[in-house]
Amino acid sequence: MKNGEIPKKLRVSLGNQQGAAALIIVLMLPVFLGFAALAVDVGYMMAVKAQLNNAAEAGALSGARALVPYTGTPPQPNWANGTLQARQTVERNYADKQSLSVSEASPGAAVPSLAAVPPLSQATPCYYRLSDNITRPTSITPQATDVPAMQVTVAKTAGHNGGPLPMMFANILGYATVNLGGQAVAMVSFPRGMPVGALFPLAAAETYVTQYLPRNPPVSFKIGSGAGSYGQWTSFKVNNNSASYVAGLISSGNPSSLNLNDNIDIQPGVKASNYGEAASHVGQTVVIPLVNPSDINSAGPTPVLGFVAFHIEAVSQGGKYIQGHYDKDFNITNAAGVGGSAPGTLSTPNPPRLVN
Question: What is the pLDDT of residues 195-223, one digit of tens each?
């Protein structure tokens, strides 16, 4: 045997191994291709699932935001408008290259249970209970922990949004189609309190918030000593109407946190100079507390019923008034805590948020 020459028996053995490996590759090639094909199907299925979830989330968020301002007597969430906005938002979305749709459940309808694949496509108004994280029908009597919400389910099943998703390669394994769905619940809550510096030292009469907050276009009115009973100055928790003290409140806001049912002092006798100092806020939206209308022009303590956004349009030092309107589209982003609206009030809501 020459140096470097492979023995004949070894050459035969290597040849047999190479032939066996080639045979294994040939036999396994359909399996490899099958896995590759399944990966294509699974990837597309996950993409469509994400599209359905995105549509459900967008519908739930827009629907929840449209539940306020409250309407009617006594004030109730605007269930019809919220459901309409949820449906219209879903209809602006696509999945599997086709437009989506949901039906509108009537107020009081049962809330479908959440499932991996929802049984139907529907926008359902409901309450979300903060204490145990469940949805409840709008027919209940809401408690402090029940906040208005919108549940949206977007199904791609038989009879909904083009039917189940067809599979390209999984059909070989007996999976011709797959049922898919997206679900989301979004709630809109109301501030239970406001942190230091978050409030402007005016108080709104709750009666006029009920009347004016839902209006479109907004109603402009005046607050102050020369403006009747729409609202008045407040020194918050300290009974002090000196010009210098009120000036500090105009500049820096409430010096301590303020929660629902805390007492604040109404100050009808604020000096004209303070109106001039408030002029720096013209064009801004501020947050102010709501109080009982019967207390709005009487010096002394009154409980806080809620919080509302007020857009300042103009200030008159000589006329002693601040003119503006309630801003129903403003989001209070720095609220301390969330919860249902206090009975009989129309607080400006926190931004809607997903809860699942």
Answer: 999 999 999 998 888 888 888 899 999 99
